[in-house]
């Protein structure tokens, strides 16, 4: 099936057109700076050169129109698009699985939007635009939180007053669920089913872990929002929650300033003082920059601690898989994390760890108690598979 996958943000819109049968990606790109001066589209076809097209994108509707136009110009008959898959950041309590877009399901995306205001409103608008512009194409909502929705209550419940959590729908929702689902699926296929307790490590500029037992999610490191858990590019991850109150009371920051600080000015960026990008930090540490080295040490420490926490939620683990920007590309980060886990019997084959490839691969030694893999993620493909499944019904 030819599926267009759309990932809309407040000022951006990523797209990918792919065939679920062949997995071929016809085209992909990103509309940037929507509603802001200097908007443009980065577009590439069938793995060709990336083109930067400077076009006025005053709103999301223009961006969607432009995506269809650019695909038509590239020689792809957009009448052959059979479904559109929409990534939605927050599915709240309505999307334990992906759902076909109807007035009702679209209403749910807006209803839970206060939990992810920067994303859900824009996503809902784009879904509505697609329905209006292309009424004959089916649309599917794939929420990033779905995979985590059925983790055990002891894992998702917060120890706050019940009336408060009930009224405001406070719980662990997690994120990166589509990626973790894909990582489980691929790991299981690659190991011919010989995986039962997997710690899935999605380590990109946003980063989270999931404990997956026989395909079922048991726990994850992100919480009510994607700020919780690991140290990330610019996010602080887990800290004492009272720090928020202290910053407001004693530091004189507004609550919005604290929000920005914790989401955009913290994490590896704050620790290194250099960059949020692991490549720059690795280069800095190589040159003897102590803050960069501390950023790396803390990343290894926290990530390994939380891997052990995920393993605890399954009473053990037989496999772990590294994925996303850092997990797929940084041999140094993988080794740093794995070394912290040596006491649990994790052993990395340093040569295998250095191999670069787009394919899933094992990087642990044969005598390692836990198999360690690198599994390139592919959220778009996972979304497209959901579209195919739901629209073929
Ligand atoms: P997201 O999708 O959350 O924006 P990605 O999964 O693309 O993030 O990961 C981005 C991060 O991955 C970068 O900030 C960088 O730290 C790291 N990264 C990407 N490519 C490489 C690479 N070739 N080598 C090392 N790190 C990389």
Percent of residues in β-strands: 15-25%
Q: Give the bound compounds.
A: adenosine-5'-diphosphate
Fold-level CATH name of the largest domain? Nucleotidyltransferase, domain 5
What is the CATH-assigned architecture of the largest domain?
A: 2-Layer Sandwich
- End-to-end separation in angstroms reads 13 Å
According to DSSP, the number of beta strands is 14
Tally of helical runs = 15
- Could you state the CATH homologous superfamily of the largest domain? ATPase, nucleotide binding domain
The parts where pLDDT drops under 50 for at least 5 residues are none
The ordered H/E elements are EEEEEHEEHHEHHHEEEHHHHHEHHHEEH
Strand neighbour order, sheet with most strands:
5-4-3-2-1-6-8-7
Shape: globular
Kindly provide the name of the CATH class of the largest domain: Alpha Beta
Quote the average pLDDT: 96
Largest sheet: 8 strands, mixed
CA-atom Rg in angstroms:
21 Å
Number of domains: 2
Give helix % range: 25-40%
Structural class: alpha/beta
